[in-house]
Design a protein that fits this description.
single chain, mainly alpha, 0% strand
């Protein structure tokens, strides 16, 4: 997200990168060193999410979560009916 939202901004390049470069700090180098490993992890994560075993597991979790919410809402409705 850094490269998409921040690094590509002309204002960021002009106001921040150039500012620190003029002061002698290799700001661009350090920003790449900090953010490039995260970009690699984001790409790997996106790739893994599309793999069939992961997708099947995520689908099971979503079904279980929806069932749990329905049961929880049903229990609350039952408790409200008993109090009245």
């Amino acid at each position: 997200m850094f490269y998409l939202l921040v690094w590509s901004s002309e204002n960021f390049q002009r106001d921040t990168v150039k500012f620190w470069h003029d002061k002698g700090l290799p700001f661009a180098y350090w920003q790449h060193a900090i953010h490039a490993p995260a970009a690699i992890l984001i790409l790997a994560d996106a790739r893994l999410k599309r793999s069939p075993p992961i997708r099947a597991h995520v689908d099971k979790i979503q079904v279980a979560r929806k069932a749990s919410v329905r049961m929880s809402l049903g229990a609350r409705r039952g408790q409200q009916g008993c109090e009245a």
